[in-house]
Design a protein that fits this description.
With 153 residues, the chain is α+β, with helices and mostly antiparallel strands. It has three helices and nine strands; from the N terminus they run H-E-E-E-E-E-H-H-E-E-E-E. The strands form two sheets. Strands 1, 2, 3, 4, 5, 8 and 9 form a seven-stranded antiparallel sheet that branches.
């Protein structure tokens, strides 16, 4: 073995030892993945505003690539006129996934963050049910691509 090759080998060994030591010092992963996918949403409102203004109609689509209940799509539609949740339904290809998304485990974690903007905002959007524009004069929405939800174990 040449002198230079020995130093290269020792250098590589040192780098490997440093990497092993650094990995050993990493704290344990204390999170677990809840859901992975895309989540575009559209809200119709009675007056202009962001997430602080109550929605008259909401369409919230979940295109899930991974969840504990498998992949699938679930679209939650809620019409809050003339009363809150006057119409409420889900269109899905995976009922267990839709139940999971609607649970405290997922959607109730999202609600507190609705006062902050995230994802891509659009000024041109609407919800159409049976060929008619859903109630609400002003629209707002978001699109979160490739989301990964994690929570402390």
């Amino acid at each position: 073995m040449k002198h230079g090759s020995r130093w290269q080998a020792l250098g590589a060994l040192g780098v490997a030892l440093l990497a092993t030591t650094a990995a050993a010092q990493q704290p344990p992963d204390t999170t677990r993945t809840l859901i992975v996918g895309e989540n575009p949403s559209i809200d119709h409102k009675a007056k202009p505003g962001g997430f602080e203004v109550p929605s008259v109609t909401t369409a919230n689509l979940w295109r899930v690539s991974w969840s504990p209940f498998g992949p699938g799509v679930a679209c939650f539609i809620i019409v809050n006129e003339p009363t809150p949740a006057a119409q409420k339904f889900v269109i899905t290809d995976n009922p267990k996934l839709a139940e999971y998304i609607a649970s405290k485990e997922v959607l109730e974690r999202l609600i507190p963050t609705w006062n902050t903007l995230s994802g891509v905002n659009s000024k041109q959007q609407e919800i159409v049910i049976d060929g008619k524009r859903a109630p609400g004069q002003y629209a707002s929405g978001f699109l979160a691509l490739n989301e990964t939800w994690r929570v402390e174990k």
